[in-house]
Amino acid sequence: MRIIDVTLEISNEMVSFPGDPRVEIAKVLDIKKGDIATVSKLMLSSHTATHIDAPAHFIKDGLTVDRLLLENLMGKVKVIDAIDEDRINREFLSKKEIGDAKAVFFKTRNSQYLHSKSFYHSYVSLSLDAAEYLIEKGVKVVGIDYLSIEEYASVDYPVHKTLLSREVVIVEGLNLLNVSEGEYSFVALPLKIKGCDGAPARVVLIEE
């Protein structure tokens, strides 16, 4: 068994989605300075690094991250290689074997930009017809390897709204650079923040 950590490291230097608060991590106590213990203060967006979007992110009265069904956040996942795609659409997905996978993660060229300190505006995103296709297939979790699944500068956010209105959980910021296409087990557990629209998550793939 091999465990593959596909979670981004949270740091002060990491890139944030434009408009989101930047990460600030600072020590308020430090044993190196004579304090009894080391304690840090964290300031960050609920959509920092590898994170989960709950329905409440875009849907009024939608499920908050603390109310998500944990059974949907672990199990089998299909990682789909979309390296050559500029946008993931229904036509592309119809040529892929999704089967009965309840979770699908997309590996794109985005992964190579995840560690850049500059935001990559031309990231690969999911089209609306692809989102509708995944819902038709019964997928419960959709993940991608950048900070948003929606194209940059979207006005109405139809992909988010379509998925989240059907309680399909979105996982963004996956580090899939060294992951091959195939089937894995996965665990994607967000911080349990009461009433929140999303939260950073530790996500791992398990290869038997």
From TrEMBL:
Pfam families: Cyclase. SUPFAM superfamilies: Putative cyclase. InterPro entries: KFase/CYL, KFase_sf. It comes from the Bacteria. This is Cyclase family protein. The lineage of its organism: Bacteria, Bacillati, Bacillota, Bacillota incertae sedis, Caldicellulosiruptorales.
